[in-house]
Design goal:
The complex is a heterodimer of chains A (113) and B (114). Chain A is mainly beta and 113 residues long. Chain A is built from no helices and nine strands. Chain B is built from no helices and eleven strands. In chain B, the strands form two sheets. In chain B, strands 2, 4, 5, 6, 9, 10 and 11 form a seven-stranded mixed sheet that branches. The chains are: A mainly beta (113), B mainly beta (114).
Chain lengths: 113, 114
Amino acid sequence: DAKTTQPPSMDCAEGRAANLPCNHSTISGNEYVYWYRQIHSQGPQYIIHGLKNNETNEMASLIITEDRKSSTLILPHATLRDTAVYYCIVRVARDSGYSTLTFGKGTMLLVSP
Amino acid sequence: GAGVSQSPRYKVAKRGQDVALRCDPISGHVSLFWYQQALGQGPEFLTYFQNEAQLDKSGLPSDRFFAERPEGSVSTLKIQRTQQEDSAVYLCASSLVWDIKTQYFGPGTRLLVL
C-alpha cells in the first residue's frame, strides 16, 4: 500500500472550515484514498473515500489533485465535536477478498471556540 | 442500533497472566478484524475472520496471541503470558461486505500489563 504523509497537528476555529492535507505521492492507479477519524477513547469512524473525483457527503468533502499525489479533507464548518485524530489511508479496494486498513499517525485536529 | 461492542473496556494484568478480550460484532456481519493501537500510534492490523474462518493472522505479533471466532459471530482475542509491551488498546471491527467503508469499529479494550 502507498504511504501517506500528514501533518501531526492542526488547529481550527469553531465554525470555520478545516482543511486537512495528505500526501500520497506513490499512490497507484487502482488505490483509493480513505479518511477515518478517531475521537478520544472511541474506535475509528469512516468519513469518506475517493479514487480520482472529488467527493462530498454529509460529513465532509474530499478533494484529490489531478495527479492523485495528494488530497485534502474539508470539514466545512468545524465544531468542537470534530476534535479528533484524522487518518488518511490509501488502500486497494478489492472486488473479492477483504481489505484491511493501514493507519499512520494521522493529524490531531483541535477545534477551539 | 447496536454497534460493535467489546469487553472488558479496561483490563489490568500482571506480567505473565493470560487475558481474553471479547468482541461482539454487528449481527450478520461476515468480516471481523482485530487491531492493536499503541499509545500515540494509529491502529495496526492483527487478524481477520470471514465468518468462522481465520483468513489472515499475519499481524499477530507472536505466538502468544491467539484469536478465534468459533460460530462466526463473537470473537475472542487471547494473549498468553502477557508482557509489558502488550499494553495497548485492542480494537475490533466488523463489516457486512468486503468494502472497508462499512467497517465499523468498537470502542476498544485498553489493556495495561504491569
